[in-house]
Amino acid sequence: MAPDKNRATAAAILPLVGGAKNITSVAHCMTRLRLGLADRSLVDDDALKALPAVMGVVEDDTYQIVLGPGTVARVTPELEAMVAESGPDAEPRPETPEHAPTAAELAAQGAAIKEARKAKNATPFKLFLRRIANIFVPLIPALIGCGIIAGFNGLLVNLEWLPSITPALAAMASGFMALIAVFVGYNTAKEFGGTPILGGAVAAIIVYAGVANIEAFGQKLSPGQGGVLGALGAAVLATYIEKWCRKWVPEAVDVLVTPTLTVLLAGLVTIFGLMFLAGEVSTGIGTAADWLLDNTGAFAGLVLGGLFLPLVMLGLHQALIPIHTTLIEQQGFTVLLPILAMAGAGQVGCAIAVYKRLRHNTSIRTTIKSALPAGFLGVGEPLIYGVSLPLGRPFVTACVGGAAGGAFIGFFSMLGDKVGSTAIGPSGWALFPLLDGNKNLGLTAAIYAGGLLIGYLVGFFATYFFGFSKQMLVDLNADVDAGESPTARAEAEPTPAKAPATI
């Protein structure tokens, strides 16, 4: 997407979310533009969904606009610039006079929406998981870039090509992972309200080579012991120490005393406690993942692949991010991500079956045609929120496809052929450049491709034969105008639209 097109997309989005004054924060993840909004009722959902660049919208703790990988990273800074240019006095998008609600009505609508979302999603556990995700999600681009370089370098080494270049590529691929604890510490302090550089400074102790000369719990420490989990704990501790210091240290000496006490106290606890404890936890995570797939691989894959989409709906998938990162740090790849990626394969197969079954529903078929390419590349939100989830039963059959693909990959893990990913974020076909395992790359790629194929086929046939009741086919298999949102169409049908609420 050209720069002028990115700016045009941002310019189209801005008035539809209530203007610059209505935006309280702007951020993005791999696929979604995440906006904090002062008044949710000012958002025009239907107009947003109709924009060519928008694949869908999701309402969570922030208002999320699905733009897809690459696009979202380019549109976000354009929108941020527009919000900054508009200034604090910018007015929200004007409503048409005949539909303009009163201030009291807007306030009531906004309060109702806010309270409903709070009651549903703002549980302490989910809020904690979101904070953890906010720490690790910014690291994903570096994980992907370094992971692809590592995979390419491994291929060159195996083929014995360009031996003068491979050491340089190895340095590029490994440098970030060697210091990932520092970045985790920096982001953790930032997320928990501390000074980011102090969080990074305390976390840097973990990767410092000199810790090899220190003994704790009767054994010598090793650089990197505790990994990202230790860095996270160290930075959280540093943040609380810093906040305590800000309350009690006189302002005249705050600039000297507070950072010194923060690094000293948090550093001592990290060296003589957290590194050992977090190291034991990290080792346990790796051991548990290996045991699970070695002994119950097919069943574990079935469960993980089948439940991943519901976990995403509930926001619980964020708990897996530090686990993935720990496995990558320990073993060089995470064995869980390829299995979880099978959920997207089931979703793609499900969407194709919906396309075949609803031959006369122009709206849903148009949405599927536009969203399938992104689905094959692992961007599942358009198909989930635009097709399967509103329809209800197809969402369940998509999960069945994911379970079958996960069981296939898990079965090969039981045979000793592990399939892993050197980074987190991508799935579908986009995961191929990041694949790694304990056997040769060709076999690893073949197993992953087989899992995708199984997920596609089972998702398709499960949806084709069991995804619709007779009444659903009668209600949905009509000539619907392509301009109508499939979500809106599904919501017009009471039974399928409400089904996901029970999932």
From TrEMBL:
It is a multi-pass membrane protein. GO terms for cellular component: plasma membrane. Gene3D superfamilies: Glucose permease domain IIB. SUPFAM superfamilies: Glucose permease domain IIB. One of its GO terms (biological process) is phosphoenolpyruvate-dependent sugar phosphotransferase system. The active site is at 29 (phosphocysteine intermediate). It comes from Streptomyces venezuelae. It is found in: Cell membrane. Keywords: Cell membrane, Kinase, Membrane, Phosphotransferase system, Sugar transport, Transferase, Transmembrane, Transmembrane helix, Transport. GO terms for molecular function: kinase activity; protein-N(PI)-phosphohistidine-sugar phosphotransferase activity; protein-phosphocysteine-N-acetylmuramate phosphotransferase system transporter activity. Residues 130-482 form the PTS EIIC type-1 domain. Pfam families: PTS_EIIB, PTS_EIIC. This is PTS alpha-glucoside transporter subunit IIA. Residues 7-89 form the PTS EIIB type-1 domain. InterPro entries: Glu_permease_IIB, PTrfase_EIIB_Cys, PTS_EIIC, PTS_EIIC_1, PTS_IIB_1, PTS_Sugar-Specific_Components. The chain crosses the membrane at residues 135-156, 168-186, 198-218, 224-241, 253-278, 298-321, 333-355, 367-388, 395-415, 445-466.
